[in-house]
Request: fold
Amino acid sequence: MAKTESTFKNMFLALFLICSIASLALAGVYLITLGPITKAQQARKEKAIREVIPDFDTLVPKTVRVAGSDQDVVLNYGYKDSVLVGVAVETFSTRGYNGLIKIMVGFLPDGTINKIAILQQKETPGLGTKMASQTFTDQFHGRTPASYRLAVKKDGGDVDAITAATISSRAFCDAVQRAWDVLQKQGGQ
Reply:
């Protein structure tokens, strides 16, 4: 068997072939996993909606684009026997320590926060990730953002920040405030 000469043309063709095969393999894996990942994300959102608002039989989603952002806020109106029982607002903040956080905030028809669920966050393990703890989220339960200042106490608000994770706490408050603002702008119903 004859050895191929190491010319620029031969090296370029070999590298091109290797990169093409690797790219096709990567694209194939992406296409194979895209469906299951999308289904898992949708299931996580549906579970969060059921966690944050009272039992409902009809869900009516409404998507609102946030001004000055490429992100959407989704309001999910839950009805039981044609009566509004709550609104689950899928909201976000880009102010987290490691960027984007997404949460689901459940509001009762009177504007009171029912519950909050975390959808996505990449905060520091053991610090910012404590935003998902019941100890932190329970301080929002039963509060109305019209009278409860959604800012950490260090900034003059009513929220107890997570120790050593003030940035994450601020981002969480920012996301809850965004949910409230969009809900008010949309009329709550």
Q: What stands out?
A: The beta strands are 58-65, 72-80, 83-96, 99-107, 113-120. The radius of gyration is 23 Å. The chain has one domain: 51-185. Residues 39 and 45 are 10 Å apart (CA to CA).
